[in-house]
Specification:
This protein is α/β, with parallel strands linked by helices. It is 33% helix and 12% strand. The protein has a 6-stranded parallel sheet.
């Protein structure tokens, strides 16, 4: 009897030891590791666009990007979902949207795009909207994650990881944040998203807590410009290795208390029609008392003119700032136009998209 008891104890102990050494469920080892050294981004220990110059301007360490926020879009409001139906099937399909996003990623990367911006609450599927009756939201009212949304997001992040791309993952978008019931739900949403990222072992993510946190449409004050630094600091405490920041409305600068706690600075070029203002914005960020050597990234700009010698993209490069393309479907345009308007053709499918990607390839040299 004593021998049987002893053997049983040994089996239990050996099981416990082997369990403790097993990796977390779904844990993966990232192929693409994004880090920052001073004002440069590094991927797998080497600066991005290593050694590359364009017209005498170094782009080594920059992170050219595009706003692709609707990659996991779905509308949970049955009264509005028919707005997003595909022209060929006359119905909306969230899985088709993600599948086509995945299929297009190789072509973006080949042109030199190293990062894209995607949001757990999307962006306006109309480009710009005064009201948002649809529900595109990866969070339940209490801040818990909705499995279908995170499953689609995981597919995108992991494809990016395989390619060597960085995901600027944003959590909140004004017009959808009010679907979280209270401030504690907002905090829980941040904690749950960060825990998911860390448990999955993703190393190709830079986190944008909220898109344009100074937008007056946000309902929860903790997301707003005067308190968003609290959430950034919370992320840094819970996940010190995760790079984090937040963005602000077009043609505005972040406050010092946000820059002080951020790992990189996000600014938007919307509302900037004079490219010289792009240069000025970068200079003003570097002049902030809280600024120290850190990357400056435009991750949204709806100005183009890629055929002209001077445009917002070019002037950002000359000022040594990363730049992000924002394209939505404008009046009288169709399915092939825009990357934010739903349904989306994720391919390089319009003259404007082609002009951006051709300019991107000219500046970066594309993938060698």
């Amino acid at each position: 009897m004593k021998i049987h008891i002893l053997l049983s104890l040994l089996i239990v102990l050996s099981s416990s030891v082997s369990f403790a050494t097993e990796p977390l469920p779904n844990k993966k080892t990232g192929k693409t590791v994004i880090t920052i050294e001073k004002d440069k981004f590094y991927i797998n220990g080497e600066p991005t666009y290593k050694g590359r110059t364009w017209q005498g301007h170094s782009i080594e360490g920059l992170l050219m990007n595009s706003r692709m926020v609707q990659g996991v879009f779905d509308d949970l409001n049955p009264e509005t979902v028919n707005r997003w139906k595909y022209p060929d099937t006359q119905k909306w399909d969230a899985n088709r949207n993600t599948n086509e996003f995945l299929s297009a990623m190789d072509s973006w990367y080949a042109k030199g795009l190293l990062a894209f911006n995607i949001n757990f609450q999307g962006g306006s599927p109309e480009g710009y909207s005064k009201v948002q009756p649809w529900e595109n939201n990866a969070f339940e009212a209490d801040g818990s994650l909705r499995p279908a949304f995170v499953k689609r997001m995981a597919r995108i992040i992991e494809k990016a990881d395989d390619l060597g791309m960085v995901v600027n993952l944003s959590l909140f978008y004004f017009g959808q944040d009010e679907r979280l019931k209270d401030e504690q739900a907002v905090i829980s949403a941040v904690d749950n998203a960060v825990a998911w990222i860390m448990n999955k072992g993703y190393t190709n993510i830079i986190l944008e807590v909220a898109n344009e946190s100074n937008n007056q449409s946000y309902q929860h004050t903790i997301i707003g410009e005067h308190r968003i630094h609290e959430l950034i600091s919370r992320v840094k405490k819970n996940a010190p290795s995760l790079l984090v920041s937040t963005s602000f409305n077009g043609n505005t600068l972040p406050p010092d208390k946000v820059v002080e706690v951020s790992d990189y600075v996000l600014i938007h070029g919307n509302g900037v029609s004079n490219p010289a203002r792009i240069t000025e914005m970068v200079s003003q960020v570097r002049a902030l008392p809280s600024y120290r050597p850190m990357p400056i990234v435009f991750n949204e700009d709806d100005h183009f003119d890629f055929d002209k010698p001077s445009n917002n993209f070019v002037e950002a490069v000359k000022a040594y700032a990363s730049w992000g393309y924002f394209d939505f479907r404008m009046k009288d345009e169709g399915f092939d136009d825009g990357y934010q308007s739903v349904p989306v053709n994720w391919e390089i499918s319009s003259p404007r998209k082609k002009a951006f990607f051709d300019k991107l390839q000219e500046i970066t040299g594309g993938v060698q």
